[in-house]
Amino acid sequence: MSQTAETRKHRTPAQDRSEKKRARILHEARIAFAQEGFEAANVRDIAAAAGTRHSMIRYHFGTKEQLWREAVRDMFQMLDQALALDDSDGEPSGGVEGYKDFLRRYIRHCAAHPEHARIMISEAMRGGERLNWIVENFLAPRRDLVERQMATAGNIQQMPKMHPLSLVYIVSSICQMPYVLAKESEALFDVDVQAPELVDAHIESVINLFFQYRESDASGQ
Asked: What would be one Pfam family of this protein (predicted)?
């Protein structure tokens, strides 16, 4: 039994309720920060959306800045769990099938949690202390892992050849953007891009785009 499971086993009902309330607050905080940005997001509105009082947010998190930090910390933990990077070695599986599995996991996470990319875009556009905090605590520690993942992808024969930096942002953009721009897709195409069948279709399209390119190129030589 993992340490987390063991900890949960010995929690009291009151502790369970407190953790669920905290998770609800963090969820609503991420939605607010993603939609409105840090400055415009209102803590009282977050409390109301979470079904709690403003004083409870101050009790659990203190300041708005600390609430934002905990919401961001939580969203990166969810990403690690989705990509299976929270296991003992923190390494994704390799090879063609391993990279396809990575893309599937990442796209499903992006579809379920578009607020992650929206928060990152908002902070990257502004720059400053909050972005620096994200880079220092979450992006920089993952840089070696991302570079190894991209190197693995670059060495896969079926993948198109490109600069590693380009590959990082091409992969993140192609996986994230349909869900970041979900309102645009709904207005333009009258579809819900987060519907399971469209998420599956996007996964298939991305995998085909990357892996059939080199296969077609090789067959034409």
From this structure: TetR_C_29
Q: Residue 73 pLDDT more than 60?
A: yes
Q: Which residue's entry shows tokens 């520690």?
A: 141
Q: Which amino acid is at 90?
A: G
Alpha helices (runs of H) in the chain, residue ranges in sequence order: 3-9, 13-40, 43-49, 54-61, 64-82, 95-112, 114-126, 129-134, 140-155, 164-180, 182-189, 196-219
Mean pLDDT within 48-54: 95
Scan for tokens 């987060």, then name that residue: 194
d(CA 157, CA 214): 7
Using alpha carbons, select from 149, 66, 81 the residue that is nearest to residue 116.
Answer: 81
Written as six digits, the tokens of 106 are 């990442």
Q: Which CATH number fits domain 12-71: 1.10.10.60, 3.40.190.150, 3.50.50.60, 3.30.70.360?
A: 1.10.10.60
- CATH level 3 topology of 83-221: Tetracycline Repressor; domain 2 (1.10.357)
Q: How many CB atoms lie within 10 A of CB 111?
A: 22
The two structure tokens encoding residue 30: 């991420």
pLDDT in tens, 157-188: 666 677 778 888 998 999 999 999 999 999 99
Q: What is the pLDDT of residue 99?
A: 84
Give the type of residue at 2.
Answer: S
Tokens matching residue 105:
């996991």
